[in-house]
Amino acid sequence: MAPETSFWHPYADMGSVRQSEHVMERAEDVWVWDTDGNRYLDGTAALWYANVGHGRPEIRAAVAAQMERMEACSAFFDLANPPVLELAHALAERAPMPSKVFFNSGGSDGIDTAAKLARRYWWEIGQPDRNVLISRTAAYHGTHGLGTALGGIPSNRQGFGELTETVQVRHNSLEEMEETFERIGPERVAAVFMEPVIGAGGVYPPSPGYIEGLAELCQRTGVLLIIDAVICAFGRLGTWFGIERWNVQPDMIVFAKGVTSGYLPLGGVIISERVAEPFWGEPGGPIFRHGSTYSGHPTCCAAALANIAILEREGLIERGRENEQALLDALAPLADHELVSEVRGGVGTMAAVQLNPEICDRQPRVTAAVALGARAAGIFIRPGGTSVAVSPPLTARVEHFEMIAQGIEYGLNRVAKSRAWQHSIRGAMSRAA
Ligand SMILES: Cc1ncc(COP(=O)(O)O)c(C=O)c1O
After folding, report:
1. Consecutive H or E run containing 17
2. Which of 314, 337, 368 is the last residue of a domain?
3. Per-residue pLDDT of the chain (433 residues; tens, 9 = 90+)
4. Ligand 1 centroid vs 49 CA: distance in angstroms?
5. Which end of the chain has a smaller Cβ tally under 10 Å, C or N?
6. Ligand 1 center–CA 108 separation, angstroms
7. Where do the H-state alpha helices sit in 270-388?
């Protein structure tokens, strides 16, 4: 028997995974192979990040070349390196507003950076009472302290003791957002966090007018609008940062994942000149006392530059939008399956198959069972609370979308037919009827 694993898997039921790790060892474009040689279609771009697909030699070469020159160097205080300078410039140039760029190691880092900077901004300009942070139900903003407090998926917030106080508003209700602003008093609100399309919480595109309305509300009240583009950026929605589709001016944009397509860990925040100004104004002015060891890591930045060159050269940014309808069309027939209540998507190359909520109430692990079924058919999909999500690399084509739909159907059928699930499924169906 194989020795028991020492690896504690993120978000995993280790009581069962300790016996059933599934080890991947090779990847190319939209495909991943396990150690037994089985091939899988990566219907999730790993964790929503392999935007250019796997195994790109250009990124590998850029990383190796940077490693040979100088693998790492601190960027604290006045230090910098050529890749971080070039990347900051490239991102600022592509951002929808004049901006500066702060780097760290991932999305959670970026969220906590943005939340701290929002509060510190108001403190610097003499409005320290503006410290309330607002987010939305179903939102996912990572796993750090402030991101956990901002998260709108209840199970991710439980059992960690007292979290920083934040306010959560129903994700699709502009009216409730306005009422919340009024109740708290806008002069106490620091910032609102928003994913343009909610990702891990179940792929919820915004309702028409919602994003423009929220941006207008923030502008009217001075509240900072912080876009969490960790999933939506780098082509996932068909633009550099996702938010450009709505023609609004954010105060900050948090990015990660697709900035390197996951080849190396990197994240950060695009910061508008409004927010940067108090810190960038005069020598001897305020210092944002924040930054992590790998902020501005040259090898991670070199990977990002090579990734951006591929996205641009192959037209993959636009592809995220060009493919959105084809992906939705491929999955749409699954709405007729007995276990499914809805198929969502159509904004960017991301979609979700929503299971009947009554079934999920009775069997919270049903989405994991569907995802395992799809995997048995050679397809990776991502199980969420009550839905399974799909977000393939931007190199994926219609034939891959069809294969993903077939894999999900296989997973749904396997659950529907399984004796172990029959009782709760039939019970939920009869209650729903
Ligand atoms: C919208 C969003 N924000 C933040 C994060 C956290 O990013 P990371 O896991 O890189 O810390 C994620 C991760 O999935 C995310 O989807």
Report:
1. helix 14-17
2. 314
3. 567 899 999 999 999 999 899 999 999 999 999 999 999 999 999 999 999 999 999 999 999 999 999 999 999 999 999 999 999 999 999 999 999 999 999 999 999 999 999 999 999 999 999 999 999 999 999 999 999 999 999 999 999 999 999 999 999 999 999 999 999 999 999 999 999 999 999 999 999 999 999 999 999 999 999 999 999 999 999 999 999 999 999 999 999 999 999 999 999 999 999 999 999 999 999 999 999 999 999 999 999 999 999 999 999 999 999 999 999 999 999 999 999 999 999 999 999 999 999 999 888 899 999 999 999 999 999 999 999 999 999 999 999 999 999 999 999 999 999 877 766 676 666 655 4
4. 10
5. N
6. 6
7. 273-280, 298-313, 316-322, 324-331, 357-362, 366-376
The pair of three-digit structure tokens given for residue 238, joined into one six-digit string: 């068909």
* Residue 112 beta carbon below 6 angstroms from any ligand 1 atom: no
Separation of CA 107 and ligand 1 centre (Å): 4
Specify whether 187 is located in the same domain as 299.
yes
Does ligand 1 come within 6 angstroms of the Cβ of 229? no
pTM of the model: 0.97
Residue 264's φ and ψ, nearest 5 degrees, are -145, 155
Judge whether 6 lies within some domain: no
Range of the domain at 373: 14-55+318-432
Residue 127, SS3 per DSSP: coil
Say which CATH number the domain at 332 has. 3.90.1150.10
Q: What is the DSSP string of 24-78?
A: EEEEEBTEEEETT--EEEETTHHHHT-TT-B--HHHHHHHHHHHHH-S----STT
**Three-state SS at 192:** strand
27: left (phi over 0), alpha (psi -120 to 50) or beta: beta
